[in-house]
């Protein structure tokens, strides 16, 4: 079967069993505690906790998706037979519609009857930390096949979640085919808080995840994911080089294409830093093996061709343009950096970070090219050196800026110039939420945000695409507030007093008893009033002028706006 036939078979199987097909969420998560969307359940998090209504939003308690995912925990393993940076996750979900028995039945029927595959064994949770062993799941597996091998493992292997700092989680049962874990079925019975405390969910749910690439691999009978019809066409375009490096180039080209198309941009922070590492690894291999820019562009075109009809957001012109811009920046220092690396006899975390900071060489390349000289170099020490540098930069920026809010606010910056820009964007998020509520109604609430030196990203609750007229009204409302040069003031008060006074708060956060409230405009007739840690501009006129660059869907009931300063 081709990957397209497997996709269609999976979706049809669950639609025939009462599941509503929901589109993939963006790789940019609404949860501020994570950098990327890493699992299919992330867009459904609030349906498990009862904060959102699946029947109202989907017409069903059961859904099916094929979710775009990026996971960076395996980035150093990319190049072997089964690890990837970007992958697609097949998943079926239930928010009270069914539980263990049906989920296990579906898993068995799809793998054995629909796909014609033989299950090596399944695993269940053996119990630990006050959570009992999952005898029930073992019983259901044995009812389906008395001869099936059931293995028991602990929390590390058979307990999943939460994604982010807190959220739904629970014991799992996993299906293994040809020695590989292909399907993880999670029984969301608990909610784990940030302090690791578990509480039983009122309504248990089902969350499953099966890597499409792994399923295609075992179905097509090939030995690696890179031999499947998802990845082989990309690999075949790459000139002669070591097999492992070909796989890395293939994986990274696909990841870059999807990350750029979902709005990520290379930077030195957080998700942007991960993207830059991936892009620069591609660029270094192109430099080492003299791969022409046109060949890299052809890799991106092949990615678009493979996913044609599934992900229309793959914008080939944007992908090639953004990659070329990063390559041009990096090319200026790459050759000098490689020469400098060659001069160093003993590569440790300090001089490795110097190579990164001065020449932009990614850790992976330093480790790989360094060979025996880099034996003592490891990721933990390098990351610790990176963290030290960030703390020094932050302290320097705070000192230069006279401590204006930076000590208690959430914004960080490498220098004063970047901090000033981010503060403007931060205040703009307050103007944006207020403008959205004025234009779309008071049911609109912030669902997440992200700020860097190039743009702000703001997620909000709204159940449809905004019209072009609504977007224009929101933009005009913000720019009018900026033109009015409104004063920005703040005061500390009790949280409940703040809410009673009309201040908005981000409902996903837990606030202390005493909070800071920022008011934009006259306190008696304010434009915006929010609970916030700052920092902000002193007057809105300092912002200048803004432009709404994009409005799009993130997940069911959540929209996203990107704004740039002009």
UniProtKB/TrEMBL annotation:
Signal peptide positions (record): none
InterPro entries the record matches: aa-tRNA-synth_II/BPL/LPL, Ala-tRNA-lgiase_IIc, Ala-tRNA-ligase_IIc_anticod-bd, Ala-tRNA-synth_IIc_core, Ala-tRNA-synth_IIc_N, Ala-tRNA_ligase, Thr/Ala-tRNA-synth_IIc_edit, tRNA_SAD
Molecular functions (GO terms): alanine-tRNA ligase activity; aminoacyl-tRNA deacylase activity; ATP binding; tRNA binding
One GO CC annotation: cytoplasm
Enzyme Commission numbers on file: 6.1.1.7
Keyword Mitochondrion on entry: no
Enzyme class, spelled out: ligase
Keywords: Aminoacyl-tRNA synthetase, ATP-binding, Ligase, Nucleotide-binding, Protein biosynthesis, RNA-binding, tRNA-binding
SMART domains: tRNA_SAD
UniProt key word Metal-binding: no
SUPFAM superfamilies attached to this UniProt entry: Class II aaRS and biotin synthetases, Putative anticodon-binding domain of alanyl-tRNA synthetase (AlaRS), ThrRS/AlaRS common domain
Domain of life per record: Bacteria
Domain Alanyl-transfer RNA synthetases family profile stretches: 1-566
GO biological process: alanyl-tRNA aminoacylation
Family assignment from sequence similarity: Belongs to the class-II aminoacyl-tRNA synthetase family.
Protein name, UniProt field: alanine--tRNA ligase
Species lineage: Bacteria, Candidatus Yanofskyibacteriota
């Amino acid at each position: 079967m081709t990957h397209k036939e497997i996709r269609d078979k999976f979706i049809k199987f669950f639609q025939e069993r009462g599941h509503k097909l929901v589109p993939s969420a963006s790789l940019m998560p609404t949860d501020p505690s994570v950098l990327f969307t890493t699992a299919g359940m992330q867009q459904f998090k609030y349906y498990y906790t009862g904060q959102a209504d699946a029947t109202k939003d989907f017409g069903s308690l059961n859904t099916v998706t094929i979710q775009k995912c990026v996971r960076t925990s395996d980035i150093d393993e990319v190049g072997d037979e089964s690890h990837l940076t970007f992958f697609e996750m097949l998943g079926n979900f239930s928010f009270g519609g069914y539980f263990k028995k049906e989920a296990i039945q579906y898993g068995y029927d799809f793998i054995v009857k629909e796909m014609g595959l033989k299950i090596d064994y399944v695993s269940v949770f053996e119990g630990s930390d006050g959570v009992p062993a999952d005898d029930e799941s073992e019983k259901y597996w044995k009812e389906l096949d008395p001869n099936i091998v059931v293995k028991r493992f602990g929390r590390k292997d058979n307990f999943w979640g939460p994604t982010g700092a807190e959220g739904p989680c629970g014991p799992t049962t996993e299906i293994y085919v040809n020695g590989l874990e292909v399907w993880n079925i999670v029984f969301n019975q608990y909610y784990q808080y940030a302090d690791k405390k578990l509480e039983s969910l009122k309504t248990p749910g089902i969350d499953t995840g099966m890597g499409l690439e792994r399923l295609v691999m075992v179905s097509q009978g090939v030995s690696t994911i890179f031999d499947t019809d998802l990845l082989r066409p990309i690999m075949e375009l790459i000139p002669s080089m070591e097999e492992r490096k070909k796989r890395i180039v293939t994986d990274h080209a696909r990841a870059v294409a999807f990350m750029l198309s979902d709005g990520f941009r290379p930077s030195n922070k957080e998700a942007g830093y991960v993207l830059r590492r991936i892009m620069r690894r591609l660029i270094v291999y192109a430099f080492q093996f003299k791969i022409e820019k046109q060949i890299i562009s052809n890799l991106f075109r092949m990615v678009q061709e493979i996913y044609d009809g599934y992900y229309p957001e793959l914008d080939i012109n944007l992908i090639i343009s953004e990659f070329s811009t990063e390559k041009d920046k990096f090319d200026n220092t790459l050759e000098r950096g490689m020469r400098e690396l060659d001069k160093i006899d003993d590569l440790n975390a300090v001089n490795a970070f110097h190579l990164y900071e001065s020449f932009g060489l990614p850790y992976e390349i330093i480790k790989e090219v360094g060979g025996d000289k880099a034996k003592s170099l490891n990721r933990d020490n390098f990351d610790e050196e990176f963290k030290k540098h960030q703390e020094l930069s932050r302290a320097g920026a705070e000192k230069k800026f006279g401590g204006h809010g930076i000590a208690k606010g959430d914004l960080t910056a490498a220098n004063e110039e970047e901090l000033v820009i981010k503060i403007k964007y931060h205040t703009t998020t307050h103007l944006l939420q207020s403008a959205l509520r004025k234009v779309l109604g008071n049911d609109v609430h912030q669902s997440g945000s992200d700020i860097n030196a190039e743009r702000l990203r703001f997620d909000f609750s709204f159940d449809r695409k905004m019209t072009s007229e609504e977007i224009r009204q929101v933009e005009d409302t913000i720019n009018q507030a900026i033109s009015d040069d409104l004063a920005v003031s703040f005061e500390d008060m009790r949280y409940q007093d703040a809410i009673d006074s009309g201040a908005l708060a981000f409902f996903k956060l837990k606030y202390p008893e005493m909070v800071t409230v920022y008011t934009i405009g006259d306190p008696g007739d304010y434009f915006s009033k929010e609970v916030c840690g700052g920092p902000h501009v002193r007057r809105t006129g300092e912002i200048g002028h803004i432009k709404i660059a994009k409005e799009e869907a993130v997940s069911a009931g959540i929209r996203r706006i990107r704004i740039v300063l002009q």
